[in-house]
Amino acid sequence: MRGPVDANFLFTLGEVFRLIRVYADKEASRYGITRAQWAVLSKVERSEGMKQTELAELLEMQPITLTRLIDKLSNAGWIERRSDQTDRRVNRLYLKKAARPLLGKLAGLRSELTATALEGISPADAHRLLTQLDQIKENVRNAIQSPAGEPSRKEQRYG
């Protein structure tokens, strides 16, 4: 890598994220869905019965955008809304039986995408990278939660 880390790190991380999104969209289209629809299905699979508002927050998506995605997934027969038993204004989300085979195929696709992205990287280095990304995530999470203007615990320059 050329140049100092602080001049390239955020740009490179953002570019990797953008390219992976484009690649995932391209490959998900093989199954007639978008990456965003895939994300909804995956989150509902992990937490069936979650509120639609919780899912919008989790996916960092505007509620109206999520509503449109859920409408499409519902019309395809992959997801259903059920009214909350204690609050009729609340919709809870559940997978329909027809979504299970699709999710199986998408799990295989996720493995393909990961293998492509990590091609040429040893399994040990891939695990180390994941650990380092988790540390970066935690560092940024802690920085967000710190009061504004509070100096960082330690200043380290990367060059």
Q: How would you describe this structure to a colleague?
A:
- The protein is mainly α.
- The chain has a domain at 14-121: Orthogonal Bundle (Arc Repressor Mutant, subunit A).
- It has helices at 5-28, 35-46, 52-58, 63-75, 99-117, 123-145, and strands at 79-83, 91-95.
- Strands 1-2 form a two-stranded antiparallel sheet.
- Helix 1 runs antiparallel to helix 5 (99-117) and helix 2 (35-46) packs across helix 4.
- The protein starts with a helix and ends in a 14-residue tail after the last helix.
Topology diagram in text:
Blueprint (H helix, E strand, L loop, with lengths): L4 H24 L6 H12 L5 H7 L4 H13 L3 E5 L7 E5 L3 H19 L5 H23 L14
Helix pairs in contact: 1-5, 2-4
Structure classification: mainly alpha
- CATH arch. level architecture of the domain at 14-121: Orthogonal Bundle
The amount of beta strand, in percent, is 5-15%
What is the CATH class of the domain at 14-121?
Mainly Alpha
CATH third-tier fold name of the domain at 14-121: Arc Repressor Mutant, subunit A
Count of distinct strands = 2
Overall helicity:
55-70%
Neighbour order of strands in the largest sheet:
1-2
Distance separating the two termini: 11 Å
Overall average residue pLDDT: 90
Largest sheet: 2 strands, antiparallel
CATH homologous superfamily placement of the domain at 14-121: Winged helix-like DNA-binding domain superfamily/Winged helix DNA-binding domain
Note the overall shape.
globular
Helices and strands, in order, run as HHHHEEHH
Tally of alpha and pi helices: 6
Radius of gyration: 19 Å
